[in-house]
Amino acid sequence: MHLTVIARVLGIFLMLFSLTMLPPILVSMWYNDGATEAFSIAMSLIFGIGFISWLPVRDVRQDLKTRDGFIVAALFWFTLGLAGTLPFMLADNPGLSFADAFFESLSGWTTTGATVMTGLEYLPKSILWYRQQLQWLGGMGIIVLAVAILPMLGIGGMQLFRAEMPGPLKDSKLTPRITETAKALWYIYLFLTVTCALAYWLAGMSTFDAIAHSFSTVGIGGFSTYDASMGYFDSALIEAIAIVFMLVAALNFSLHFYAWRHKSLRHYFLDSEVKFFLFILAGGAILTIAALWLTDTYDFGGSVRHGLFELVSVATTAGFGTADFSVWPVFLPVLLFMMAFIGGCSGSTGGGMKVIRILLVFKQGIREIHRLIHPNAIIPVKLGKQPVSDRILESVWGFFALYVVTFMVMMLALMATGLDQVTAFSAVGSCLNNLGPGLGEVAAHYGNISDTAKWILALTMLLGRLEIFTLLVLISPSFWRS
């Protein structure tokens, strides 16, 4: 383990992150909202800490090993989540406590979208910008982590993607060098953000709101500049734009890369994960719209509009809202909430267990049924026309088992703080799947739960975003043996 290399990398991360305080400073100066000093102090402190960490080891040029990669991946979100608390605490408005500020910061970084703040309309514009910016930066970090970093550690989704992708991507990473991969992904991510912002602006949002909401839409974060979220605008066109970009951002960015490189869309319709994802969404949409219409919750047009938006928002784990789905009739609150457990595709900004894992679990279940009928048959699990190795299937089942155990432990821990079963279940599910809104006491916000519960949920967000394995491996004794 190379602690000097880790310190150098984290020092660089902190110094780079300090520079992201410049846009909020400019926004604060433009609107004269009184938060300029808070962001300036935060930028100086974060840069100073990063510089002190980097300076003694600046000449170290060793490569990161696999174990170093696990530590860096975990410390990246924790350290930057910790650094991100400063503006929330230093600014007079909102002036959050440390627990609340860390919860809000980590929720932004992990693109969870769970918030402890209300009265968003009355916050300084720079604070609102900063919240949205955190989700945008976190979303890009997730893409690079999922597509470029985790496969190097042996736990990413890229090997599943390569199993059925034709052409040069099948036998290599997206590009030979990780820096080139990250750069290409940044271009795609930035292009989607600019396009989304322009579409929102043309649909009637102000320039500020359009940019702010494009950050959280493409990042699938769900933060908004209004308590009413997307419902504030009451625009079917804006909601339609949000649906399109939430769906695009919930697809594997490797597919977007392939489309950009080869100027082709055909591979989207050939990808097993995409087809399964759209099939699940279509089934959920039919059930949701039908239930809303048949129970007279809305007329048919309203059922389609609100039902489709909420379904896509929750299923992609964005967490935007135009209506309070927690009070919808019959099975709808649970149906929508369960959709978040599936989440987005691998290599996307979406949370959840990921569509590819659910698909493989389903195919494995079908195979076991066939084995009962034909015990001696050799029945491979395939994605498209390519067989999936047993090692990958074992990894998926291992993730599923750890996911269930983690969920149970966190839920019991939350209930021990005094929360009821519905609130504890939905809060853990929401944070582990990086969704945001929950049911019960956390349907609107998380500000009323105890600090202990917030710390538990902050850890849950981190576990969900780092795909559980990345964090839990650090508590394994064998990891620390030389």
Written overview of the protein:
The protein is an all-alpha fold. The chain has 22 helices and 2 strands. It has a two-stranded antiparallel sheet with strand order 1-2. Strand 1 and strand 2 form a beta hairpin. It is globular. About 5% of the residues have low confidence.
Indicate the low-confidence ranges by residue numbers: 152-176
**In which range does the helix fraction lie?**
55-70%
The neighbouring-strand order within the major sheet is 1-2
Oligomer: single chain
The description of the largest β-sheet is: 2 strands, antiparallel
Let me know the average pLDDT: 88
Proportion of residues in extended strands? under 5%
Gross morphology: globular
- What class, by secondary structure content? mainly alpha
- Helical stretch count? 22
Rg calc: 22 Å
- Following the backbone from N to C, one meets helices and strands in this order, namely HHHHHHHHHHHHHHHHHEEHHHHH
Cα separation of the termini: 8 Å
Architecture blueprint of SSEs:
Layout: H1 3-19, H2 22-31, H3 36-54, H4 66-83, H5 85-90, H6 98-109, H7 125-153, H8 158-162, H9 178-202, H10 207-218, H11 236-249, H12 253-262, H13 266-270, H14 272-294, H15 300-315, H16 332-342, H17 355-373, E1 382-383, E2 386-387, H18 390-416, H19 421-432, H20 451-465, H21 469-472, H22 477-480
Antiparallel strand pairs: 1-2
Features:
22 helices, 65% helix, 482 residues
How is this structure best summarized?
The chain contains 22 helices and 2 strands.
